[in-house]
Amino acid sequence: MQDQDLNSSGSGLDPRRSTVEPLLSTLRGWRPKCAGRYCDWRTMNLHNHQATRVLAGFVILVLLAAGGCSFWGGDPRQKSQTVQTNLYGNLNGWQPVAFSAKPFASLVQHSFCEEGGDYDPSVSADGKWIVFSSLRHCPNPDLYIKQAQGFTTTRLTSDPASEIQPSFSPQSDKVAYASNRTGDWDIWVIGVDGSNPVRLTAGAGNDIHPSWSPDGKQIVYCSLGGRSNQWELWVVNVENPSVKKWIGYGLFPEWCPNAKIPKIAFQQSRYRGSQWFSIWTIDFVNDEAKYPTEIVSSVDYACICPSWSPDGSKLAYSTVGRTLYEKGEGPVPQSSGEDIWTVDLDGRNNLRLTHTDASNFSPCWGPDGRVYFCSDRKNIENIWSIQPHQIQFARENPVDLSQHPLNSVRANF
Predict the structure, then answer these.
(1) Domain boundaries, the chain
(2) Which among 152, 203, 260, 319 is least surrounded, fewest beta carbons within 10 Å?
(3) For the whole model, what pTM was predicted?
(4) Structure confidence by residue, pLDDT tens digits, 355-396
């Protein structure tokens, strides 16, 4: 899991996993019991044969007698009625709705590492390939690529150093990633066949978590500033790496894949209170960043690692709670809430996707609407995906995502 201490004031860095292991969630769902079925006698045709009428009448009398009917002097206050189950209490005007269970039938495992672990997934534009970091062969992570529905894996990098946080280019012909092979973390680009690795950033700082612009000409990444001692957001030109631009403070940026929504999502911590991370966006228009907007936050959990939906109308993100090893006031809660969520770009419809005792992190949205993520639900980190329920993409009507009247940029998809 790409990470940083939940409090971003520190300068330490371990991009693979958090320095503290969150507690596993103890919340469990419940399953309502199904109500029995009943027959509707009105659908029977009782007018064709005398024998049928006699038989039907006999059956009805037996049912009425068994149901406590007052036909033979029973309690007049008792009335025969159909028993209906209301799962939400006795609400005025409530209409019965058939209960339909929705199990995790859409949950799919994509990698099958048995030693080490796989993490940091990125999905190609056509949804057929996954590139990820893995410890399956070495103590330091390398990059691997595999078919989304296949089993074999191809190794892209083989270096004594670490390669993490890969990101497919929009054309899916290149992969950007972070590597510390020169001593510090820098941004590199390599072909999907493992050829021609190119270093984009250099310096004494740590540069991690690259994300491509929709046209593939620029990459946004975060860098630990030497002067500010904070995580900074930078944009670099892929063809001319000497051209860079600082656009603000934040961590783990993700460029919206929809060119009609020129926004970059990232995480940023408060400078007061719990200092939890929350999810933000900025508009990036004409090489200028403006309108920083907080999308989702929590006083109980850190909201981290945002990922855009294919159309740019939603964000997936992870939550992480306080851990046993984190110093803080008050008792430590019994669950960390390390799960995957989705939320609309306007902050509505906050939906939790995972409900298990496993740790779920590093979400990545595929082009078909599936959310890929890393999970240790089988006691080792592997790549999984789940299809969110009741999520629609490619809306017919244009949606204005601007919250500022001076912003002339409009989303039209």
Answers:
(1) 108-386
(2) 152
(3) 0.71
(4) 867 899 999 999 999 999 999 988 999 999 999 875 665 544
